[in-house]
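Could you join me in thinking about how sequence relates to backbone shape in a protein? Would you write everything just below, so we can both look at the same thing?
***
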Amino acid sequence: MRVITGIGALFAFIELLYMVMVLAGANAGNGFYIFIQALARPLALFWPGLFPVSDPNLAVILDYGLAAAFWVIVAGVIARFAAR
C-alpha cells in the first residue's frame, strides 16, 4: 500500500514541480527543467487542453494541478483495493 501511494505522490510531486517552475518563469533551456518537463508532460495524460482557457498561467494550473490531484486520488483508490 505504501509503495502505491508513494508512487502516486511522486507523480503528483513531479506535476506540481513542473507547474511551479513554469509559473515562476524558470529557464526552459536548463537541463533540470528539461528533465522535469520530459517527466511531467507524459504523466499529465489527458489533462492538458481539456479546459481551454485564454490565460496561460491558469492553463498550466488546470492542466498540471488537475493531473497531480488525479495521481493522488488514483493511487489512493488502488492502494485501498490492494489492501483488501
Remarks:
- Helices lie at 2-24, 31-43, 56-83.
- The chain has a mean pLDDT of 94.
